Structure formats: C-alpha cells, structure tokens
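Run log // design_07
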C-alpha cells in the first residue's frame, strides 16, 4: 500500500500550515471512526477462525468474484505468493474455490463458495447493525452532513486510486 508523503510543516506558509494541521486532524478523526468498527470486525473474524488478510481477501472476492491471484494481489497491494498462501487456507476451510478459466486454462480464478459468502455476509450484517445503532444517535442534519462528507471521501479515494494506476 502506498505511503503518503510526509510534509514538514516548517516548509509551509501560514495558509498551508493551517490546512496541513486540519488534514492531520481530520485523518486522526477518520482513524478513530474506522476504529469504531475494527474491534467488532476483528472479533467476528476471530470467531470464524480468519485472519484480517484472509477476511480482506474474502471481501475483495465478494466485490469482484472470480479474480485470479495476480488481480487479488494488485487489489490488496501484496505479493502474489502471499495471496496464494491465503487462498490455499481459504480453500481448505471451504470458503473459496478455484476454477480454471474456460477461455484461458492457464488462468485460475478464485470464487467465494456459498459458505464463504455466508461468512462475509454474517460479518457484514454484524458490523452494519453496530454502525446503524451508532448512526441512530445523529439527528437528521448531522446524518445528512455525514452522508455528504463520506460521499466526498469516496470520490476522492476513487480519484486517488485512478491517479496511482
């Protein structure tokens, strides 16, 4: 995963310094927000006997089922040999299955099994319900602002991904 460039606040002008401080503050708030759900997800993954990298792989296949190892490695920002080991374990657990590509038999595609889809769905439901219970505490205006901010964040993330490809 690419690391952001460190910015030395001493090299910035007053306006840039204020923006930098705001960026750092918002990044910390974002980290805190992500942390709200991380502990719950880790608990759910542990109950399923999965590691975080394995669960990330399952989530990726949930979004784009049938990816070969190389594509999974690209999406997750790791070496293909790392993915192969995780896929091997997930195949043994019955959560992923491999199939030869019908057009090019040199390509092996990876798919969630029914049990894999159920596992991902269960973790997603638990986490989703937890977040909804938190969001219920926001009034309509707060929820609308959060919705707009998250939509902006997702668009910026998409743009950043496209800039790096």
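design_07 sequence
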């Amino acid at each position: 995963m690419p690391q952001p460039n460190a910015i030395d606040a001493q090299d910035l002008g007053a306006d840039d310094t204020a923006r930098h401080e705001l960026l750092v503050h918002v990044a910390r708030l974002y980290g805190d927000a992500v942390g709200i759900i991380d502990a719950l997800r880790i608990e759910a993954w542990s109950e399923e006997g999965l590691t975080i990298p394995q669960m990330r792989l399952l989530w990726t296949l949930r979004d784009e089922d049938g990816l070969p190892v190389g594509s999974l490695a690209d999406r997750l920002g790791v070496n293909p040999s790392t993915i192969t080991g995780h896929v091997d374990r997930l195949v043994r657990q019955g959560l992923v299955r491999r199939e030869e590509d019908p057009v090019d038999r040199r390509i092996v595609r990876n798919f969630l099994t029914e049990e894999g889809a159920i596992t991902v769905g269960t973790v997603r439901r638990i986490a989703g319900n937890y977040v909804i219970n938190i969001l219920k505490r926001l009034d309509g205006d707060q929820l609308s602002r959060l919705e707009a901010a998250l939509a902006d964040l997702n668009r910026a993330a998409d743009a950043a991904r496209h800039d790096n490809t």
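Residues 1-5 have pLDDT under 50 and may be disordered.
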